[in-house]
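User: For my dataset I need records formatted as: sequence, then structure tokens, nothing else. Please produce one.
Assistant:
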Amino acid sequence: LIAVVPRGFDRASAAAIGQAFNHQLFVVGTDVHDGKWPNENAFVTCNGDGVVFDCFKRAEDGNGFIVRLHNTKNEDASCVVRFNQMFGTLASVETVDLLERPEEGPAVKAAGSGAGHVLTIAAESIASFRFAFQ
């Protein structure tokens, strides 16, 4: 038996290690100074155990943005997706297929005022969502 990860190591942990390996940190040296920008910033973030953030792109038809995630666990998993305030106010969220056509899917729940959006992804599956902003 040949294994990429030790026995008993779950796929979610293996995927997280793989993502960390594929997206290495880059160090940029600079002098010490007071800056106007935050220490950390992102267009979109996704936090959820076993959920891998695969894609963030402009929708093919130009209406909104597509977020594609996959669940590495063998049970349903939830994550919270947050967008940078530069996108404005969220107008709508819908579940779409891989060709970006609307489809029936789990409801997207707001996690609080501006705190993010809770997405549920079925066990061992890929899910795509269209986010539209005002």
